[in-house]
Amino acid sequence: MANVLFISWFLSLAQFLTLVITIQAKIPAVIVFGDSSVDAGNNNFIPTIARSNFEPYGRDFTGGRPTGRFSNGRIATDFISQALGLRPAVPAYLDPAYNISDFAVGVTFASAATGYDNETSDVLSVIPLWKQMLFYKAYQMKLRAYLGEIQANQIINEGIHMISIGTNDFLENYYAFPGGRRSTQYTISEYENFLAGIAENFVRDLYGLGARKISLGGLPPMGCMPLERNTNLMGGRECVQSYNNVAMEFNGKLRKMVTRLNKELPGINLMFSNPYYIFMQIIRRPSLFGFEVTSMACCATGMYEMGYACAQNSFLTCTDADKYVFWDSFHPTQKTNQIVANYVVKRVLYKLI
Fold first, then answer.
1. Quick count: other Cβ atoms within 10 Å of Cβ 325?
2. Which residues form the signal peptide (predicted)?
3. Catalytic residue from among 35, 36, 37, 215
4. Catalytic residue among 95, 215, 328, 329
């Protein structure tokens, strides 16, 4: 009996090790574009107030240091990189502490407060999506100079390109300026179509540059962010359902686009990574995931603060962020990021391995 159990254990271990080796062999890098959900500190090196390179941000990151990630610790792409057998953190492209040898296995061009729409990035003077593409082109040139054409092309072809963006277009642009240019120029459905068109062009550009494994991220239930809930006084500080409806509608349009491009572009492996439903499960049934607080954030009062308003001298900031779904009024905690990342790896990204 003992021998049978040992053999079974050995075979299970062998299968696990084979899977790890396969992942490492097939996924050489994680390459990231987007907003604060995946910015590891690029905004630290541009003139903007959309930063988080100060305490208490990063207090649960390795070394207890703020990095520019809008979290108490790691963000989703860090956990995804580690799950794929790569490094436990994806560095920011503009961070001078890293070079092309680091970026060869993972890099993020993301910028907090940006969006698909150039007018969204203009609000806080951050890096627009088109400029992230320029950074990516420069990265490819550096990669070829460092590794040579063949190996660099392999990383580009086999690496997972992740896109996580869009929330700011709605909450920091369209809805933030009633009577503003976008809200008078487009109905909400038309604006969704406008953004989806930009997303499609971006995917096509990546494909034209050699990317074949691409994950296009959807929107979370943005009406359930503490900032939105706590300004929803007439709704009893519940989730703003109209915002959640927009997120689901926009996600549906992205999903259809992904299906169409997979048929149209030869060799592409484009996946839609939808965080909406796992996020809603966490918010609706927090105890199943070990959370205690969903409507308030950990930082300061937990109602409105993010960025510089999330100051280290606030005595109201919680002591245990793992009990909270949200770190500040807009961004999830490290624990939430890990749960969402694990979900995406197991439900979506495994198809790219």
1. 26
2. 1-25
3. 36
4. 328
Indicate the SS3 state at residue 42: helix
Place of tokens 């990035």: 121
Catalytic site residue from 52, 81, 169, 331: 331
Q: How far is CA 141 from CA 67, 99, 130, in A?
A: 26, 13, 17
Whole-angstrom CA distances from 297 to 35, 113, 216 are 20, 19, 27
The first and second tokens of residue 110, run together, are 């993301």
CA atoms within 13 A on the CB side of 64: 0
Q: In this structure, what token pair is assigned to residue 169?
A: 């277009």
pLDDT tens for the chain, 353 residues long, are: 444 433 444 444 444 443 443 444 489 999 999 999 999 999 999 999 999 999 999 999 999 999 999 999 999 999 999 999 999 999 999 999 999 999 999 999 999 999 999 999 999 999 999 999 999 999 999 999 999 999 999 999 999 999 999 999 999 999 999 888 999 999 999 999 999 999 999 999 999 999 999 999 999 999 999 999 999 998 899 999 999 999 999 999 999 999 999 999 999 999 999 999 999 999 999 999 999 999 999 999 999 999 999 977 778 999 999 999 999 999 999 999 999 999 999 999 998 88
The residue written with tokens 């993972």 in the block is: 106
- Single out the residue of 40, 196, 45 nearest to residue 116, CA to CA: 196
Using DSSP's 3-state secondary structure scheme, residue 170 falls into helix
Q: Which residues have a Cβ under 8 Å from the Cβ of 223 and sit 6 or more positions away?
A: 229, 239, 240, 241, 242, 243, 244, 247
Handedness of CA 346, 270, 154, 86 (dihedral sign): negative
SS (H, E, C) 304-347: CCCHHHCCCCCCCCCCCHHHEEECCCCCECHHHHHHHHHHHHHH
Phi, psi angle pair for 150, to nearest 5°:
-65, -50
Pairwise CA distance, residues 100 & 93, whole Å: 9
Residue with tokens 């100079």: 145
Nearest to 114 by CA among 76, 178, 78, 70: 70
Sheet holding 269-273, edge to edge: 106-108, 30-34, 160-164, 213-217, 269-273
Say whether pTM exceeds 0.70: yes
